[in-house]
Amino acid sequence: MKFTAPVEKNKNYTATIVDLTYQGMGVAKIEDFPIFITNALPGEEVELSVTKVAKSYAFGRVVKFIKESPDRVNNIDVAYTQTGIAPLQHLSYPGQLAFKQHQVEALFAKAHLDDVKVNETIGMETPYHYRNKAQVPVREIRGQLETGFYKRGSHDVVPIEDFYIQDPEIDKAIVVVRDLLRRFHIDAYDEETNTGVVKTVMVRRGYYSHEMMVVIVTRTHKLSMVNELVEEITKALPEVKSIIQNVNSARTNVLLGQTDRIHFGSSVIHDQLMGLTFEISAHSFYQVNPQQTERLYNLAIEKAQLAGKENVVDAYCGIGTISLAVAKHAKQVYGVEIVQDAISDAKTNANLNGIDNVEFKVAKAETQMERWHEAGLQPDVIMVDPPRKGLAPEFITAATDAQPSRIVYVSCNPATLVRDVQLFMEKGYHLEGAVQPVDQFPQTTSIESVVALVKD
Ligand code: SAH
């Protein structure tokens, strides 16, 4: 039987939005056939035009709002939706927090864990201007060098000056650098022909320290007028403690190349997080929303219920933020992480803060967990902060074989959190209290949460 969708491309329909996907798209149903619509919110009635029809779903765009949601924010900037910088900007902040809580609830319910309680999402008082790092493409548009952001799903740059979710001091710095590049007639990179010079400007600024780093990523080793450029940047931006030219000749989506030229100041800046000092290089991973990271990690540490006598494993430890913050509450901390550079940073940061009860290993968490277990390590608490794909099943086996009394799980993807919690349940652990979502990325659809699991 030939399948026919109940909707046709380029035709208009009237429908009510019944749901919001985890990517923040409104969902309407016509004869049970889902249509995904940007910039549409649950409860809204819209006239929509179908833009694409696939086998089991379609995409559409709003032609006219017949009834708007009370949670709708008007006066939005289309550039933020076009670029995906702020895909939830059209939803009020309380609406965003509720959306994230409901997403987590729905995923637990779908896994038949209906009795799991999900707390209200912990949000920010000021849910914008929070990012401490920006990396913006530099391109020539209609004869002029521009900084901005890629249009979603393309490599076309939309010029932007106010990035909305970044530290405004960083926005200012980008405009300063852009104007100097224009003034000194330095060429922007051309992606199509792989010619030109400046590919990206990256700026980092310490939330507490206010130290600023400017990284200019170039295709070529040569950067004309570099001395003048550096002098003018430091004059205009007194917070700048480091100006680096990073050479990335490769035609790739990887942002940074291997070669750094320090044109001014130091190769690193410093900032504080959880009361500790961290050294941050151009290449370092560092949490981008320090205020909410502190909330999330403090909650995780609270849930670990440490008295100072425990052995703690911090798996997927990155630059050791959790390990180092936990160290003063524990006897000994063991961190494991797959990226060598992150572990180098973690060790530097341990020294910087005079912490000597932490041991870091470069390995796959699942492999190292097994090794520690075989070596007789008995962790009292295991803390995990894995990437979006969640925990490897071998990790869960090795972790539960070690029989810790608690496991604290920091998650950046509720779907894999639910999957992993089910596996821990099969291995004799249960959830303690509620799941706590924390909004690390306001205006976007990312959802972080933290839970504690204890031995039955
Ligand atoms: N808490 C950390 C961030 C964790 S992000 C911090 O503040 O720095 C998740 C980390 O898991 C990343 O650093 C990533 O490199 C690491 N990772 C991914 N897969 C891994 C694996 N199989 N084993 C160990 N670490 C892994």
From TrEMBL:
CDD domains: AdoMet_MTases (cd02440)
Keyword line: Methyltransferase, S-adenosyl-L-methionine, Transferase
PROSITE patterns: SAM_MT_RNA_M5U, TRAM, TRMA_1
GO molecular function annotation: rRNA (uridine-C5-)-methyltransferase activity
SUPFAM superfamilies: Nucleic acid-binding proteins, S-adenosyl-L-methionine-dependent methyltransferases
Binding-site residues, S-adenosyl-L-methionine: 287, 316, 337, 385
InterPro entries the record matches: MeTrfase_TrmA_AS, NA-bd_OB-fold, SAM-dependent_MTases_sf, TRAM_dom, U5_MeTrfase_fam
Catalytic residues as annotated in Swiss-Prot or TrEMBL: 412, 412 (nucleophile)
GO BP: any one term: rRNA base methylation
Pfam families tied to this protein: TRAM (PF01938), tRNA_U5-meth_tr (PF05958)
TRAM domain location: 6-64
Record PANTHER family: RNA M5U METHYLTRANSFERASE, TRNA (URACIL(54)-C(5))-METHYLTRANSFERASE
Record-stated family: Belongs to the class I-like SAM-binding methyltransferase superfamily. RNA M5U methyltransferase family.
Name of the protein: RNA methyltransferase
